[in-house]
Amino acid sequence: MAKTYKVSSGDEYVIVTVDDGGSYIIKDMAGRKVFLSKHQAELMKFGINNIIKGAFKKGDDKSIKIEEIKQ
């Protein structure tokens, strides 16, 4: 069963859906979508993790929230 998450920082957010096969669908606030196969997602995971870690290192007041959306 696919899982959907809302990743937000303040009033900006993206919706990330992970399907059973490991593929990702990322949708921004404007409704634009990016489809990533399992292999593409694995290749990008390193970059995404570094971006998130960098956001926490900055020490600003913005907090990144990740919440699962029940369907």
Write the layout of secondary structure elements.
Blueprint: E1 3-9, E2 12-18, E3 24-28, E4 33-36, H1 38-57, E5 64-69
Question: Can you put this structure into words, describing what you see?
Answer:
The chain is built from 1 helix and 5 strands, in the order ββββαβ. The protein has 71 residues and is an alpha+beta fold. A 5-stranded antiparallel beta sheet has the order 4-3-2-1-5, with helices on one face. The protein starts with a strand and ends with a strand. The model has no long low-confidence stretch (mean pLDDT 79).
List its traits.
71 residues; 5-stranded antiparallel β-sheet; globular; 41% strand; alpha+beta
Strand order of the largest sheet: 4-3-2-1-5
Q: In sequence order, what are the helices and strands, one letter per element?
A: EEEEHE
Q: How many β strands by DSSP?
A: 5
Largest sheet: 5 strands, antiparallel
Low-confidence stretches: none
Q: What share of the residues lie within helices?
A: 25-40%
Radius of gyration, whole Å: 13 Å
Question: Any idea what the shape is?
Answer: globular
Percentage beta strand: 35-45%
Structural class based on helices, strands and sheet pairing: alpha+beta
Mean pLDDT rating: 79
Distance between the termini: 10 Å
